Structure formats: C-alpha cells, structure tokens
C-alpha cells in the first residue's frame, strides 16, 4: 500500500512529518510512505536514514495556513495538497495525509479527488475525547457549513460505516446533536434530519445534548458543519483554559510545586486522554479515496497515528462500503 | 421596587429560593421580595423570620422541568411562572425571577409579559465565565433556535445596552460567533448578520472563534439560539468532566490526597471563577419587563445574585434604553 504524506503542512512541519513517516515506515514494512515536498528538506531531516519503503517525491509548492482555500488550490496546482489529492484520484497512492490548510485540503479533496457518486457533500470527521477513553467521531466539523437534512443523513451513514470499520466500534451508536433530547426539539434542519436518519439501517440513538458528550454515550455524533466547528473549537478552548489555569495554581508557591510533583503522573495521563493527537487525524468522508487531515499541531507521534488510521481506512475498504450502502438504499 | 420570585423552580427549590430571598431582603431594604408559591411552603422555610420587605403570594400551581413549555403555560395559567410574568406586565412587580423550566419562562415571557415594540424575538442571555473573571454575555442561547439576520442584529443591540447598563462594561466589545475570523466566513445567516451588525452604533469587533472565548476578548457574544445552546452546554460539560477527572486524580492515593490538601484553596478559587452561579441569572432580553432566568442548579447565593441583577435591570432602565434605541434607528 502506498500512502502519500504532505511534509509541508502543520505547525511542526516538516520535521514532525518526516519523523512520523520514518516511524511509520519502520513499523509497517508493507506500506510505502511517499513524502511530498522539497526533496532537500526531507533529505536533511532524514539524516541518512532511508528505509526501503520510504520515498521522496519532489513537490516545490505548498499552501500556507493563511491562504484562502479555493483560490489557493486553483493557483497552486503543483502544491503538496493538490498533488496528494491527485495521486489518490489517479491511483498513484491509496491514501493521502496532510496537516496543512484544512479548507484547502477539503476543497482539493472535493474538486480533485472527487466525491463518491451519490454523496452530496463530504464531511470532516475528527475524533473527540471522551472520559472512557474510547473517543467519539464527530461529523461534520466544517467541510460544509450550510447543511441540509440530506447531508446530515449521509453523515450519519458514513460515520457509522467508518466507526465500525476503522475505529472498531461494534454497532456504533449514532446520535444527532440537538438542544434537547426530546423528538421535535431544535431547528427545522434537525427535525427533518432526525426523520431521515431514523430510517437508516444504523444504530441511531436519537438526539444528544452537548452537555453529555464527554460521558461517552454515543460513538458517532452528527451535526452541521457550523455547529460542529464551534463545538470542536470550544472543547479545545475550554480544555486549554482549564489546564492553563491549573498549571498556574500548581506553580503558585514552593508548597504547590511540591504537590504538583506528586500529582504529575496522574495529570499527565489525564492530559494525554484529552489529547486529540492520540486519536490520529480526521478523515474527509465522502471522497473517492482516503484523504486524512492530521491535526495542525501534529507531532511525530500524531503523524504516525494518522498513518495507522489511513492504513485501516484503505484495508477495511470504507469507501466501497459507503458506495455499496448508498446504492443499496437507492 | 417589587421583585417577584418563583419559589417552586430549580433543583434546590423551594429551600434555596426562600433562603436567597431572605438574604436579599436583608441586604436591600428598598426592595420588596414577593415569593410566589404555596404559602405554607414559604412559611415553613422562613421559620419565623419575616422581614417587613418580604411578602408571600399564594400560588398553588407550578410547572415542572419536564413539562412541554407551551402546553404547560396554556394549561397552567395559575402557575408561578405565568403569574410572575403577568405581574410584570401589569405592574404588580417591577421584575420576575425564576429558576424553573426555561422553555416555559421564555414562552410566558413572550406571550404573557410581551415583547418590546419592534423586537422580533426575545433572547436568553446568560453570562459565560472568562479567565479574566469579568465574564461575557452570550445571546441567544435557546429562546429562538431558528434565527434570522434581523434577530442577530437585535441581539447585538440589546446585548450591548444590557452589558453597559447592568454589567458595567464601558463600550462593550460585541463579537459575532463564527467558524473563522475573516469577513465572509460561515453560513449565509452569519454573513448577512455581520453586514447588519456593523451598521449599528455599538462597538462591534467582528467575528470571534469558539476557541478564544474564555480569553475574554469580547464582552458580548452574538449567536443563533441553537449554536448558543450547544456552546453553553458544551462549556458546562467539558468543565464538569475536567473537574471530575481532576478530583479522581486528587483522591487516588494518600500522597495525592496530601497534595490535594495543599492545592485546595487555589482549586476552589478556580472552581468559583468558572461557576455560572456567581454571575447571577440570565435576562430574557426583548421583553416589556425584566424577567430573569436563574440557573436551574441555583443555591441561595445564586438567588441572591439574581436579585441584585434584577434590581440593576430595573434601576438602569434597560428596557427603556432598548426601546429608545430601536426608535432612533427606525
């Protein structure tokens, strides 16, 4: 299996990307990692290490985090993101991973790799941490801010298939994010989506409230891209703020610093549980090939996890599964 | 000034309501507290204490948290919530406070107290904690899930006036919740709302992302009721989960318990900062009279704070301020 990796996207690019790819190449000898970016950048970071299943593809252009996505992918047809999405479309790679500009990756995924026949909108589907450590797939978180009920219906279907095949959830519990658990609550978008999702051959558990998400009561959470994006960023923001203030308390005096030393192992474990990076990247579901968005702050370990995830995405034939289910439902 | 208080709403009703009212009556001799509920319940909790500025009004019906709001207020015209809203409309009280069924209070506020002329939809506007301790007013969080740009425009105006007059923010910074800070991001609702809000005579700072909310960069956050409700509940859920896991770590062993004892004052201070109850209740903005929703989990102190807030709501003539601004803008 060949997996293309954008070395030029993410806060710690290219070092973390190259290091993560090396770790992945060492772990999985059946997988060829193809690093997209300036060859001399990869080479200087590899410092002579070059497993047989790691290759470099010279790509001299990339899209920065600040660029306007659609304009960027139109102007930079030779950029890592566009090249990676094209490789997947043309079968030069079975999957593509990037930690770069999320909007550009979604746009290139849609316009270059292309949508599965019958899918109206792809969805970006990251994992959220839950207190039981299993995590929860949330989609969409921003690929499509202006959602319609048929989009949410397809998210539910795609999320259920992905959660079962890649994440290993048995009969994943799919919930619909709403402002109350009773049927009939919420906006007309949600009410109409509820009516459609309940007819799908999935394990739909109905409405779920934002208050209960971390308790792990659902495995796949369906929402429109605007709400999902707010949810994702708010969760990050609150967790970061709480940990920040906690750190302040722990370093306030010599006595609290002593207490902090005692608590350190437990707090570290906790911080790791809450860390998105442990869960790999976010698949762009609904495309003709596996495209994975790694977190912008990905370190080498996160890149390694994203490769593991992309491997399963390919091995479990998720895209064929989605296509077949769509055809079956007509 | 007369303030009516529903003693039958909230998780700790009626004890917390009666106790909070007593504290408020003792603090502000110029304010008459009128307790709505079964007189014998109030009397048994007062245990003989009866300040001259505290009176009891016999109301024998109330709406539980589980009841469907609109049906409940139609069927229970003699309930504490409906009676309180009617007292405000008829000038028998200058303000009404309830910690009961939020939907029922919003429905009764709209249908019984009534909207200010020119206001399309009232908004529920609670305070969110921020790390600088000042807090941020968020509206709407669920009074109106199906928002239009003209609603968000009015939220911005009402929120700015309330934040200035009641919360004491000078030239409150008003932000629009969006999935990116650039103009032109987000749904058509947000893009159209942005265009309207920028024309208002307020201090509009543009789009704000959910990630940055706790940093205290804005004083008034405008959003549709669905997104606001999700934001509120997610913030509560994440904070609760993090504190819960922290407690687990602190009580894991004798050593961590010792460490916990050292950290206790700091952690308590932090928990208090993050506590919604410190900030009083959420006004229902856009009604003809001050109606305040106290948090469902209100204790006596939260009720006392809600009274303080209702007093300012009346004293600073917020409703007149909103009406006049609306007329001025035509």
UniProtKB/TrEMBL annotation, chains A, B:
<keyword id="KW-0963">Cytoplasm</keyword>
<dbReference type="InterPro" id="IPR003664">
    <property type="entry name" value="FA_synthesis"/>
</dbReference>
<keyword id="KW-0594">Phospholipid biosynthesis</keyword>
<keyword id="KW-0443">Lipid metabolism</keyword>
<keyword id="KW-1208">Phospholipid metabolism</keyword>
<dbReference type="GO" id="GO:0043811">
    <property type="term" value="F:phosphate:acyl-[acyl carrier protein] acyltransferase activity"/>
</dbReference>
<keyword id="KW-0808">Transferase</keyword>
<comment type="function">
    <text>Catalyzes the reversible formation of acyl-phosphate (acyl-PO(4)) from acyl-[acyl-carrier-protein] (acyl-ACP). This enzyme utilizes acyl-ACP as fatty acyl donor, but not acyl-CoA.</text>
</comment>
<dbReference type="GO" id="GO:0008654">
    <property type="term" value="P:phospholipid biosynthetic process"/>
</dbReference>
<comment type="similarity">
    <text>Belongs to the PlsX family.</text>
</comment>
<dbReference type="GO" id="GO:0005737">
    <property type="term" value="C:cytoplasm"/>
</dbReference>
<dbReference type="Pfam" id="PF02504">
    <property type="entry name" value="FA_synthesis"/>
</dbReference>
<comment type="pathway">
    <text>Lipid metabolism; phospholipid metabolism.</text>
</comment>
<keyword id="KW-0012">Acyltransferase</keyword>
<protein>
    <recommendedName>
        <fullName>Phosphate acyltransferase</fullName>
        <ecNumber>2.3.1.274</ecNumber>
    </recommendedName>
</protein>
<keyword id="KW-0444">Lipid biosynthesis</keyword>
<dbReference type="GO" id="GO:0006633">
    <property type="term" value="P:fatty acid biosynthetic process"/>
</dbReference>
<comment type="subunit">
    <text>Homodimer. Probably interacts with PlsY.</text>
</comment>
<dbReference type="InterPro" id="IPR012281">
    <property type="entry name" value="Phospholipid_synth_PlsX-like"/>
</dbReference>
């Amino acid at each position: 299996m060949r997996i293309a990796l954008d070395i030029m996207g993410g806060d710690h690019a290219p070092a973390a990307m190259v290091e993560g790819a090396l770790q992945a190449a060492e772990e999985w000898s059946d997988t060829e990692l193809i690093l997209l970016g300036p060859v001399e950048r990869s080479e200087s970071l590899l410092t002579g290490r070059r497993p047989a299943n790691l290759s470099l593809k010279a790509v001299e252009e990339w899209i920065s985090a600040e660029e306007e996505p659609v304009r960027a992918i139109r102007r930079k047809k030779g950029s890592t993101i566009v090249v990676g999405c094209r490789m997947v479309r043309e079968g030069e790679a079975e999957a593509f991973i990037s930690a770069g500009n999320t909007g550009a990756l979604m746009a290139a995924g849609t316009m270059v790799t292309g949508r599965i026949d019958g899918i109206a909108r792809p969805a970006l589907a990251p994992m959220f941490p839950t207190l039981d450590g299993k995590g929860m797939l949330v989609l969409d978180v921003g690929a499509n801010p202006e959602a319609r009920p048929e989009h949410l219906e397809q998210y539910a279907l795609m999320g259920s298939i992905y959660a079962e095949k890649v994440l290993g959830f048995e009969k994943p519990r799919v919930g619909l994010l709403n402002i109350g658990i009773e049927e009939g609550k919420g906006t007309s978008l949600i009410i109409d989506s509820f009516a459609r999702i309940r007819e799908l051959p999935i394990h739909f558990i109905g409405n779920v409230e934002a208050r209960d998400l971390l308790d792990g009561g659902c495995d796949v959470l369906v929402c429109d891209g605007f709400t999902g994006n707010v949810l994702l960023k708010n969760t990050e923001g609150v967790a970061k703020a709480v940990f920040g203030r906690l750190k302040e308390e722990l370093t306030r005096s010599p006595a609290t610093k002593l207490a902090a030393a005692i608590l350190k192992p437990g707090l570290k474990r906790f911080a790791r549980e809450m860390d998105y990076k442990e869960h790999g990247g976010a698949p762009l579901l609904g495309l003709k090939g596996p495209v994975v968005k790694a977190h912008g702050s990905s370190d080498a370990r996160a890149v390694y996890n994203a490769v593991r995830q992309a491997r399963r995405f390919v091995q479990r034939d998720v895209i064929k599964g989605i296509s077949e289910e769509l055809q079956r439902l007509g």
